[in-house]
Amino acid sequence: MTGKIIGVGNYIPSETITNLFFDKHVFMNEHGITLKEDNATITSKLMKITGIEERRYAASNQVTSDLGFIAAKKAIENSGIDPETLDYIIFAHNFGDVKINTIQSDMVPSLASRVKNLLKIKNNFCVGYDLLFGCPGWIEGVIQANAFIKSGIAKRCLVIGAETLSRVVDIHDRDSMIYADGAGAVIIEANDSDDSGIKSHLSASFTLNEKDYLYFGKSYNNEACQDTKFIKMDGRKIYEFALLNVPVAMKKCFDESGFAINKLNKIIIHQANEKMDEAIVNRFYELYGISTPPEIMPMVINKLGNSSVATIPSLLTMIMQDELESHKIEKGDIVLFASVGAGMNVNAIVYQF
């Protein structure tokens, strides 16, 4: 018995934010000193490193649970199931519902409870809970859903990943240009009738020295935003950490699946940073002593930015719905999912479609 994806859905906000949006921002360093480079140079350098040309922001009247609800509804419709048959709703996010132009996060009741309410599910034994695990949260939710299914206490689970990072960024920090909003969701069902489903998984938390590589900190503008905290990161340390640890975790997970490396059809990795993701995948294949195959890793970060837990399920939905010309997933294909993020957490799944 294993978990099988039977429905996918996403919500990509309609508000497109190009790099020109940041032209008038006053960017500073961590000491509160205005950067000497002009904003055109700053955004150009960021685009070369991350690949981001555009990102999407949620509408002013939307919060994270709204985005998650839309993606969940689409996944349910795609699966064709009755939502009353769901045993679990697992909602991965990091900052809860943050209304625009406010500084307070709202997580009570849980976002999963809010989505269940919006879906009008009457079944009291459909359990909803939230999962905070950094950017790898959606993968971790899938791993937990699979555990419920394998244990026999669940037959169907809805796993959502949604975030509105645009609400928690420091406008004086150039890293704010990386973050975006979005949502993705899947329906996972117990399967013992064919070979499709989760074949192996791996999770790890590096906390001894790495826990503060991503954190909630003060604005770089020490005078204007003294009492408000924003998402912050040590980009260089994260990059070095990811290249050292993620390829090894991916290999360990893939080896445990029992498949030969030449059978791997696709790698769907958290859309964090195009340059970093490419380096991770290249190092993964170097561990096997072979070159990276062409078209193995789809990337949409250039148009959608980094929406944290939403990047992987959003991208998966786009592929499954034939929205990416050069990337397809066929029945029997082997796909490796992987992510890295705040914690510092790393995880991976090998899945056969």
Automatic annotation (TrEMBL):
Residue span(s) of domain Beta-ketoacyl-[acyl-carrier-protein] synthase III C-terminal: 255-352
Xref: InterPro entries: ACP_syn_III_C, ACP_syn_III_N, Thiolase-like
Entries under SUPFAM superfamilies matching the protein: Thiolase-like (SSF53901)
Keyword Metal-binding annotated: no
MF annotations from Gene Ontology: 3-oxoacyl-[acyl-carrier-protein] synthase activity
Gene3D superfamilies named in the record: 3.40.47.10
Keyword tags: Acyltransferase, Transferase
Domain Beta-ketoacyl-[acyl-carrier-protein] synthase III N-terminal: 129-202
Biological process terms in GO annotation: fatty acid biosynthetic process; secondary metabolite biosynthetic process
PANTHER family: 3-OXOACYL-[ACYL-CARRIER-PROTEIN] SYNTHASE 3, BETA-KETOACYL-[ACYL-CARRIER-PROTEIN] SYNTHASE III
Protein name, UniProt field: 3-oxoacyl-ACP synthase
Taxonomic lineage of the native organism: Bacteria, Pseudomonadati, Bacteroidota, Flavobacteriia, Flavobacteriales
